Amino acid sequence: MGSTIAEKVISRAVARKVHAGELIDALPVDKLYFNEVIGPPAILNFQKDFGDVFQDAGKRMKVFDPMRVAFMPDHTVPSCSIMVSSGIKLMANFAKDQGITMYKEGDGIEHTIASEEGFVLPGEIAVATDSHTCTQGALGSLAFGIGTTEAENLLATGELYSFTVPETINFQVDGKLQHGVYPKDLVLHVLGLMGEGGCSKRIAEYSGSTFDSMEMDGRFTVCNLSVEMSARTAIINPDATTMSYVENALQGRGASLTSEQSNMIAKSDPDATYSQTVRVDASEVEPTVSLPHSPANAKPVSEVSDPINVVFLGSCANARRSDLVVAAKILKGRKVHPDTNLIVIPASRKVYNWAMDNGILATIAASGANIESSNCGPCFGKHMGILAPGDRCLSTSNRNYKGRMGSPEAFIYLGSPATAAATAVEGRIADPRKYLVD
Amino acid sequence: MKLRGRVAKKYGDDINTDYIIPAYLLQESWDKQFFADHAFEYFDPSFKTACRANKESIVVAANNFGCGSSREQAVYAVKYNNVVAVVAQSFPDIFYRNCLNNGLLPIQVADTSRIEQGDELIIDLESRSLKDLTRGEDYVIIATDSAVDQMKKGGFLGYVRERLRERLAAPTS
């Protein structure tokens, strides 16, 4: 009986062959990262709930393995309130005491830098205090979000308890995306097919010729949004594109893949068992937007032309290099519509600096955009572009719930970076294809 | 283990954690009660009053209750308004696990359409049954053995402390 990639990754971690449906008492986790939203309470709870256990054992309070933990303050940085600053300070002090790597405010969004820095690797189990941890599935790692209590438990023991191996849905996606159609459009289309609860409790595994030819930026986007159909997580079998990305990320900090790390890489067997197969013809997908107030409320952009007064290009869903490139291509020599505010937030400091060195930020700035340092921005609804009642926003992020980005009386649409740029120019939802004729 | 409570609120599909507790509040307190005080403040401002009217309230929903963000504050927001259980047709994994870890019972039954606001319910974990006393109807609780076990214990903390004790006692640590 064959295994899915997810079953293989879990089997490796527990050192026995397991299949979907099996209960694992204690699942060891390879990597753990915290943002500044859940990090502070998780640390406080860890100290409160386990301090006496260390004391009784006559040992210094220590996390299970500081090398496997990283802190990435990203949601509302540079800090926007005294409480946020206090939380970041608490994390920094704890990181210093424990020998945990703490990234700086502005280094980037956690899910972007976890892969970009080579912190999470193919075949690993990675968890973090955020539902979009599934983004790392693009590397062929099994990654998902956890709450505060599991985070404090993991700091203590590095284990997740009572974990059931999930079933997997095979999304078989074939065909070439049309010119002007991006992985973001594809995944919004998939959310439309499946609904908000359509992948509940199951892993979304993506394969097929569309993914074979897709660059890593797009794979991250597709995995990122899969949680919007309530997928346990998303995963893509690693290939040459993945490995070249990973080698490059490790080189960035003077490292390379060890043989132990290489041995962890897994791929689904041809005879693996799936709970369901969903076939998608990528060549039929049009530029797609999700209308208020659900990510699964997907419509072809050609059917929508609502006025838009705020455009946000950013978040862990997009705002990587290729996303800024296409936005700059559309904005070059054009101006943002007088009634529209365009906010651009590169997904990491590396993306920001690269885009600056290549003149991309200059092009975007010349169009009249506001460019902010790397963080989650208005997607979290706390700073840098909060929506007023009646505002209509086109965002490249992943959630358009009522009230997500500010007022519950605002309207949020989701779309690709190309659609965002075209929309910023026209001040209404616009098809980007007419700006991309070479 | 048996719990008796009154249905204080009934919702439909896909109630996400942003609706339960808006993101802008998450970093403003480390106190669980703070989130209860702001529960559903955009989506349903009457939630607090309705739940606090009973000593033991129950929230009922259709499919996919607690989808979206992993914020555990959503569980605090519900629980610390006198809510002992959420009865729904399905829950996404992260929210379900967050409930188990905090002693808020996530009770899955096949169909919640006939349960109404104001109904009195009895949840019996031993027999895995839910009884709607008001309507005289019975439902089967869908849960794995380990989930039921965790519901009875109110979380995992005792077990994790034991695991840590073993690890600290091992010669390699």
Task: Set down the secondary structure blueprint.
The complex is a heterodimer of chains A (438) and B (173).
Chain A: H1 5-14, E1 23-28, E2 31-34, H2 39-56, E3 69-71, H3 82-98, E4 101-102, H4 110-116, E5 125-128, E6 142-145, H5 148-157, E7 159-164, E8 168-174, H6 183-194, E9 203-207, H7 209-212, H8 216-225, E10 233-236, H9 240-251, H10 259-263, E11 276-281, E12 288-290, E13 298-300, E14 310-313, H11 321-331, E15 341-344, H12 349-357, H13 360-366, E16 370-371, E17 392-395, E18 411-414, H14 417-426
Parallel strand pairs in A: 2-3, 2-5, 3-4, 5-6, 8-9, 8-11, 9-10, 14-15, 14-17, 15-16, 17-18
Antiparallel strand pairs in A: 1-7, 12-13
Helix pairs in contact in A: 2-3, 2-5, 6-8, 11-13, 11-14
Chain B: E1 2-10, H1 17-20, H2 32-37, H3 47-52, E2 57-60, H4 73-79, E3 83-88, H5 93-102, E4 105-108, E5 120-124, E6 129-132, E7 137-140, H6 145-153, H7 157-169
Parallel strand pairs in B: 1-2, 2-3, 3-4
Antiparallel strand pairs in B: 1-5, 5-6, 6-7
Helix pairs in contact in B: 4-5
Short description:
The complex is a heterodimer of chains A (438) and B (173). Chain A is α/β, with parallel strands linked by helices and 438 residues long.
Mind telling me the CATH superfamily name of chain B?
Answer: Aconitase, domain 4
**How many beta-strand segments of chain A?**
18
CATH fold call of chain B: Aconitase, domain 4
Shape of chain B: globular
The major sheet of chain A is characterized as: 5 strands, parallel
Helix content of chain B: 25-40%
Number of strands of chain B: 7
